[in-house]
Amino acid sequence: MKDILKRYLAHNDMVRVFVVDATNMVANYRDLHKASNVVMAAVGRTLMATTMMADMLKSDTDRLTVQIKANGSIGGIVVCGSNNLEMKTYATNPQVDVPKKENGKLDVSGIINGGKLTVIKDIGLKEPYIGVCDLVSSEIAEDFAYYFVTSEQTPCAVFLGVNFSKGNEVQKAGGYIIEPLPEASNEVITKLESINLSINSVTNLMLDLNNIDEVAKFITGDENIKCIEEKEPVLKCDCSKKRIEETIIALGKKDALKIYDENNKFEVSCHFCNKKYNFTKEELENLFK
Fold first, then answer.
1. Pairwise CA distance, residues 193 & 126, whole Å
2. Rounded CA gap, 250 and 279, in Å?
3. Adjacency order of strands within the sheet including 15-21
4. DSSP string spanning 2-48?
5. What are the start-end ranges of the E strands in 59-122?
6. CA separation for the pair 9, 16 (Å, rounded)
C-alpha cells in the first residue's frame, strides 16, 4: 500500500486534523541507512511530524527544514520537504543503539537526551522564518506540540509512532495532529482531550482500524468528519551532480584541489540518500574556468 496523508475538518469546521501513514517512507529510510530500531523510531516520528507540517505550507515552492540538535548519541536529525510532500531525512549517527526501557519500549529519549528543535520555513520572503524551542521530553511528539504552542501560538495534540513486527520489519509508522481552531467550543475541546488522553499507541490504533478515515473519526469523535485533502508523501532525495558542483564552487578552487591532492580523489556523499559523486582533477579545474 502507498503512504498517505489526509487533512480533515471536524465538528462543523471547528477542528483541523492531519493523519499520516508513512510506513513505506520509514522502511525506505532503514534500507538507505541501515538504522537501528531506536533511531528508526526517532527519525520516523520526526519525519512524520515534518511531513504534516509541510502539508501546512501554502505554496508548492515553499520549503521546510526541521532540525533536532540532540545532546545524546544520535547527534541530530534533519528532515527537509515541500508542500508536494517529497521528503528527505538523515540522522547523524543512524546505527547507535541503547537498551529498551523497563516497559519494553524503545528508548528514544535516551538517544536524544535533550537539545533544540529548529524549524526553518522558506516561504518566499526576504528572509526565512526560523523558530527554535527546547526539547521538553525528547520523545518527539511532545516536543513538536511544545514548538507549536511556543513558536506558532497554535495549541494542538501531536501523536507519532513507529511499530515493528516480530520479524523486525516496520509494521506501521503513523501519526496525527489535531488542532482546535479559534472558534472551537469548550465542549469540543473537552471531548478531544478525553478521547486522546485514552490512546496509548497511535500505531496500534491504526493497525486495529486499518483505515485512515476511521482513525480520523475515532480521534475526533466525529462520524461526520470531512476529508478536504489527500496526498501521497514519498521519501525522495533531490540531490544531483549539478547541485554538488555548485557546492564545490562555493568551496573554492584552492580548497577543492587541496582535497583532491591529499586523497588522490574528490568524492562527495549525500547525507540524505548516500549517493556518491566523484570528480576527476580535470573536472574540478574545469568547474573554475
1. 39
2. 15
3. 157-164, 170-180, 15-21, 4-10, 226-231
4. --EEEEEEETTTTEEEEEEE-HHHHHHHHHHH---HHHHHHHHHHHH
5. 63-70, 76-82, 86-91, 115-122
6. 5
End-to-end CA distance of the chain: 49
In this structure, what C-alpha cell is assigned to residue 282? 580535470
pLDDT tens readout for residues 204-251: 999 999 899 999 999 999 999 999 999 999 999 999 999 999 999 999
Q: Checking phi first, is residue 177 left (phi over 0); if not, alpha (psi -120 to 50) or beta?
A: beta
- With both helix axes pointing from N to C terminus, report the angle between 37-55 and 23-33 in degrees, rounded to the nearest 10: 130
Q: What is the pLDDT of residues 252-265, one digit of tens each?
A: 999 999 999 999 99
| Greatest C-alpha distance within the chain | 70
| Cα distances (angstroms) measured from residue 173 to each of 93, 206, 252 | 21, 9, 42
Coil vs helix vs strand at 134: strand
Query: Residue 202 is placed in which grid cell?
Result: 497511535
- Taking the C-alpha atoms of residue 64 and residue 129, their distance in angstroms, rounded to an integer, is 10
